[in-house]
Amino acid sequence: MQDFQTVNSVYPLGDRRLQSGETLRDGQLSYTQVGQLNAAGDNLILLPTYYGGSDEGMLPLIGADSPLDPERYCLVIPNLLGNGRSSSPSNAHPEQRGGHFPRISLYDNVQAQKRLLEARFQDARPALVMGWSMGGMQALQWGCLYPDRVGRILSICATARCWPHNHVFLEGVKAALTADPTWQKGFYTQKPAAGLKAFGRVYAGWAFSQAFFRRQLYRELGFETIEALLQYWEADHLAQDANDLLALLDTWQQGDISNNPVWQGDFKSALGAITPPTLIMPGSTDLYFTAEDAAWEAQCMANARCQPLVSDWGHCAGAPGRHPADMAVILEACRTLLDSPEFSSP
Predict the structure, then answer these.
(1) Which of 6, 59, 166, 286 is spaced 20 to 30 Å from 156 by Cα?
(2) Are the C-beta atoms of residues 44 and 81 closer than 8 Å to each other?
(3) CA-CA distance, 264 to 240, in Å (whole number)?
(4) How far apart (Å, rounded) are the C-alpha atoms in residues 58 and 199?
């Protein structure tokens, strides 16, 4: 049970020119705030959201025994554009709903978040940007665009780009959804239920590791059988909007911290520009944001340490609140990062 108060707000982006050249009409950035900005403006922590999740999904990181203490920090959780809370295919300007929604990039998300901090939080410089999965990608995008404005970075089960095998994985789940004839290329009149259920089933096999299933670790989540777990994933995806899922998936697939006007595709230079103390925590059994890719990226950063999250829970090892033992390791690493002075890469 959370012992802190949350404030849910929306920041109007207006008509926002996107990296694609399109304009997001009447854009909205939804976010949650926990705790207050101090007089010095140096206690803000940014917690970007992940694929398929929202601000509520990040709340298990906060309070109790966590170093993310609302009594000490102002914690801001911005929702990804496309996730159903911020501007998305399901809630956009009427002219951009459904299949008409424009493409959104990591760069677009970080630019929107920066505008939020400028307008609502006295242009505060984040003491930490921390995220899991796509949240970690956003943290690294912040790091290379604004290295002088970010105190520290913690990227969990994420990489700075969508590497080729990750891209192929996403093609598979996307194909499962869009094969449903009800989808109608995004202009559906009824929920593409069969496609959403197929999407969830295929995704489940990637979200956890081989050892997770072999050791029957799904029982720790309350599922007696693999089929029960798969039915849960079906139900979870049936509750989401298909176009929202695909819009976020596109942001993920095209994700590359160098794919913007600043770095113009120079990936190694973008990685090298991440100079704040950075902790990279890849999942040791993550099947798509792989530990190998994350470790290579960390070596290209100026002041990064790679500390694998050793777990059989695959990508879900880093999910906020999903597995207590992994969560404890993440929060302890976060505490060390926040309390330590700068460190250098080994």
Answers:
(1) 6
(2) no
(3) 34
(4) 23
Catalytic-labelled residue, pool 30, 87, 90, 133: 133
Burial class (CB in 10 A: 0-12, 13-18, 19+), 93: middle
The dihedral formed by the CA atoms of 147, 148, 151 and 157, expressed in degrees to the nearest 10: -10
Pairing of strands 278-281, 304-306: parallel
For residue 342, what pLDDT is reported? 58
Asked if 165 is an active-site residue, the reply is no
| Marked catalytic residue, from 244, 256, 286, 293 | 286
Residues 6+ apart with CB under 8 A from 104: 18, 24, 81, 82, 247, 250, 251
Identify whether 286 is a catalytic site residue: yes
**And the tokens for 279?**
């902790």
Pairing of strands 23-34, 74-78: antiparallel
CA distances (Å), origin 311, targets 287, 288, 291: 12, 15, 12
- Residue found under tokens 């994700």: 255
CA gap 226, 274 in Å, rounded? 41
Tokens 């959780």 appear where? 77
Token pair, residue 204, equals 């489940």
Please, which residues bridge with residue 45 across strands?
A: 75, 128
pLDDT score at 346:
31
* Catalytic hit among 66, 90, 315, 323: 315
- Residue 244 catalytic? no
Quickly count: other Cβ atoms within 10 Å of residue 300's Cβ. 17
Quickly list H helices, 27-105: none
Q: Give the pLDDT score at 344.
A: 41
Instruction: Output the pTM of the full model.
Output: 0.97
Check whether 314 has a pLDDT greater than 80: yes
Residues facing 11 on adjacent strands: 29
